[in-house]
Design goal:
With 242 residues, the chain is α/β, with parallel strands linked by helices. It has ten helices and nine strands. It has a single domain, classed as TIM Barrel (Alpha-Beta Barrel), CATH 3.20.20. β5, α5 and β6 form a beta-alpha-beta unit. The relative contact order is 0.14. The chain has a nine-stranded mixed β-sheet.
Length: 242
Amino acid sequence: MTAAAAAPAPTNAEVTLRVAELFGPTLQGEGPSAGQRAVFVRLSGCNLDCGWCDTPYTWDWARFDPAQESRTLPVQAVLDWILGRDTDLVVITGGEPLIQHARLTPLAQALAAAGRRIEIETNGTIAPPDRLIECVERFNVSPKLGGSGVPIGRRIRPAALEALRGTGKAVFKFVIGAPEDLAELADLQARFGLAPVWVMPQGTHPADVVEGLRALAEPTLAHGWNLSSRLHVLVWGDQRGR
């Protein structure tokens, strides 16, 4: 047996995550679990740079100081924080949390063993490993459309979308900011067999969300999609940690 093979696996106290913020209990604001009580683990870092991103403090180090907005925490510390709250649903988001999938997996395994339900919010550009898939109840996959300003080759990764669809645990949630986004969404759905589909309006202020919901209602019904509000924005506006 080699020395490497004999080395013990790192413990949860040794494995670390780059974390932007931990918050809750609050309410899941989007998608099929909207309105449910949840705690959030928001991880740092993203592989995209959407122009309308509502959490740029997780990745835009030209505008935000990583020393202020990001910290390295042991998985055990994150786990202890979550288990100290009597909340069944844990939402892991970002940034793009699957950038850290190898270090995220031990946290998900421990949470699943403790009976917590786990949702991961992802932009759909990174395929999750099998060990992580086993622990997760749902992947809320949010492929970015042209209005994001990100080139299509970076934001649409066919192999990753197909892998996420193949988990049987994915819903596909699209942010709509302009009418042309609806046509692109319909094309992506047809190309990759994405289902179920949820659409929601872009906006970080309650009035914008309400206006967007009204504009999206009829197209959503016509296409057979589902409509999601941004409940946290309607209740708390653009307040962080809610």
